[in-house]
């Protein structure tokens, strides 16, 4: 593996007007350090590949030998300066003096980007360098830091929102969500409609011989079924088939079953795994109140309670 190398502070008047002076006693090794850096440039520039041992091929071994010759020319006190593991300040100085287009790591993230995002990824850069010193293996770590720590803000009429962490998926209010939802759930809807047409399952009777099977709006899906155990079993089989095809999963704990026309739900429905609405409970679906045998008094009381709660919150705020 490469001899342990630390990058020492050097004089560079071109760094945004900041003149970096060499530490006392370190100036005599700067020329040797410059040679080492020059040699290792060739070592780094073609290593944009997967993790591998740096001594695996002859070309890289030749670079190691050249660096070793430079290293052996130093005296004991000089080489001692190079044997110390670099600290965060030294690593930052090294990134500062690199060309903005140069990539200091395997992930092709340039030094210019690294400098701009330094506070977010400095720990990843440090870990990458220390791993290299420890066992001669180069790992891609800065991309992980860029993704995990990425944040954004939204400008609204000149005001800036709080930071929003970026990641996979979409956020509520995103304008593309309805289209994404339609694309992802259309196969399920087609399976259910095919099952309805073939009379494999029965939807809710709506009069005039019609059956309504589903209610779809934005990212909400409601399934309307005749309350029969066999009908329920077949409907869940269709959903399970979609899960196997798509890799998606029905969020059972968040799903609610609302029996209509029952004073007590049947036993087979209690084992479905979903939340089960019982008499006296009120749920909301797309802004509508739903429940078992709801009365006008229950609905009115629910609305009054919600209004009272909102008004109480207002009184606790300075308007």
Spatial extent as radius of gyration = 33 Å
> What's the helix-strand series?
HHHHHHHEEEEHEEEEHEHEEEH
Number of helices: 11
Strand order of the largest sheet: 1-4
* Approximate helicity band: 40-55%
Largest β-sheet summary: 2 strands, antiparallel
**Percent in strands:** 5-15%
- The overall pLDDT average reads 67
Which stretches are low in confidence, meaning pLDDT under 50 for 5 or more residues running? 1-29, 41-55
Secondary-structure-based class equals: mainly alpha
Number of DSSP strand runs: 12
Shape: elongated
Termini gap = 66 Å
Organism: Riccia sorocarpa
Domain Reverse transcriptase: 140-259
Protein name: Reverse transcriptase domain-containing protein
Task: Provide an overview of this structure.
- The chain has 319 residues and is mainly alpha-helical.
- The chain has helices at 30-45, 58-72, 76-83, 88-97, 111-116, 118-135, 142-148, 177-197, 229-246, 267-270, 296-315; strands spanning 151-152, 155-156, 159-160, 164-165, 204-207, 210-212, 214-217, 220-223, 256-257, 275-276, 282-285, 288-291.
- A two-stranded antiparallel ribbon has the order 1-4. Strands 2-3 form a two-stranded antiparallel ribbon.
- Helix 1 (30-45) packs antiparallel against helix 2 (58-72), helix 6 packs antiparallel against helix 7 (142-148) and helix 8 crosses helix 9.
- The longest helix is centred in the middle third of the chain and has 21 residues, at 177-197.
- The chain is elongated and about 95 Å long.
